[in-house]
Amino acid sequence: MNLLKKLKIAIFTVILILISNTAFTQITNDISHEDALKVLLAAKKKAEETNVLVNIAVVDAGANLKAFIRMDESFLGSIDVAIKKAKTARYFDIDTGKLGELTQPGGIIYNIEHSNGGLITFPGGYPIKNKNGKIIGAIGVSGGTIDQDRAIAIFGAESII
Amino acid sequence: MNLLKKLKIAIFTVILILISNTAFTQITNDISHEDALKVLLAAKKKAEETNVLVNIAVVDAGANLKAFIRMDESFLGSIDVAIKKAKTARYFDIDTGKLGELTQPGGIIYNIEHSNGGLITFPGGYPIKNKNGKIIGAIGVSGGTIDQDRAIAIFGAESII
Amino acid sequence: MNLLKKLKIAIFTVILILISNTAFTQITNDISHEDALKVLLAAKKKAEETNVLVNIAVVDAGANLKAFIRMDESFLGSIDVAIKKAKTARYFDIDTGKLGELTQPGGIIYNIEHSNGGLITFPGGYPIKNKNGKIIGAIGVSGGTIDQDRAIAIFGAESII
Amino acid sequence: MNLLKKLKIAIFTVILILISNTAFTQITNDISHEDALKVLLAAKKKAEETNVLVNIAVVDAGANLKAFIRMDESFLGSIDVAIKKAKTARYFDIDTGKLGELTQPGGIIYNIEHSNGGLITFPGGYPIKNKNGKIIGAIGVSGGTIDQDRAIAIFGAESII
């Protein structure tokens, strides 16, 4: 690399630093446990404010369980549904509700739910992105109506952007 | 808590005791094994009276198996179906037949059966409530027609109210 | 068959009937649900009398679950252990404690527990025989000490002989 | 119940209320999600202070997952181990390390690990009690040495007493 090119990069970097307050915040491609906890608690707060009893799961970039909470009196069956929604959302980097449109009878990926130890393909699973728009994990919410679950999931996912 | 408040509560409690005969009857939020056995035998008697050969499972508030019986000559495949019906009914506090209406193709929770190690979402699973209307477990019946299974399940569940 | 032979058989049968009160009681090679219930309740009564909290499972000749009860406050983990003890006892027609002696490191069937979806090879599983000494099922008891579990299982099994 | 008996009970209740400040504090037999979160965060703080990377799981009285967190860079394989430790501790109401002493070759419950979908019987699982000493759930910790895991689990469990 010649001196001129190095200088250009240096100047560009300085400008970047000057216009951005977050320039020195490390942005990784995997959700940290602190952020997973933030997502979890933001979603929980939203659920409480809207009087919905839910289970909330957060998985990391590797689709492995990172954080989880089950609200008192929420459905027992929603533990597994919430975890599977989060995993499904990360397995295919998609809003689980969108995936469900493709898995209906006659759909292009009909019955894909049989793979990966069981998928959940209705709304409530949602990818989590970092500030750069890179998917770093996913959230799954189960216990309310599918619209409530999806809204809570999106609220949680967006709480760290 | 100040003394006046304590006194008010005390007086209210006295009134409550005086007007109620059931004040000291213990009603818990989990089915006892004696009640589980009552539910089982009531359902079995109903099945025998109507000449239906069934498997009957009762789960507790935690969706754990509490009591079970398989009638002679009933389907071998109904052992697991009866247990899964009971668990499904408690997992989501619902008549399994009602759940099945929502899991059809195009339904809002299509293919939820893939969660929780396998759900059964046709009639025959039914929540069991205590005298206060609180769900304390569930019953699952399998072996007859879905209408017969459901009727036997409801008969069993209501035998302890 | 000639007439003389027929006569001999007839006379032998008459004698058999005359000396036996149970000659016309049907004895099958599979436990009935009524007998399974008797075994269950006998074992439960024994457990209550000796203040042991147990789970009790009865399987039929096909090693399929026939009857089950979990006493209040007994271990949650004993549900599966009781069922597996009963199945193991019938799978190999043996007192599960005897089987365990052979499955130790260096034993002739070391780690057979890995088969059949998981076996339990310590005491508490016991074959159930009919009046003719034929094995017609098995009982599994879990929740007390292994000696208590075994004693309750044997008491239950012998209640229908 | 006659009027005199009712009155006696009423008077006794009044006295009970007057002498006790905690008479109206609800203590249940199942861990709340707020307490589960407290246990989780106390254990996490302890792990961070002692530089141990762990997975922490909390299950409720029904041995169902209630809360979970996986610290960054902790073992992927510890997700399942932590959950199974918590479940095992509640399944048999025991320090998992104590259970492990009984499951060794020649032990009285050798190979019980094959039940309940897989148990973990080395240290790191520990029952959680409420202020009355009643077991209301359990915690499982995995990722450090067994001594570290156990110490963190106990610290978490005792944080809500």
Automatic annotation (TrEMBL), chains A, B, C, D:
Signal peptide annotation: 1-25
One Pfam family recorded for the sequence: HbpS-like
SUPFAM superfamilies: GlcG-like (SSF143744)
Keyword ATP-binding in record: no
Key words of the record: Signal
Protein name (record): PduO protein
Species for this entry: Polaribacter reichenbachii
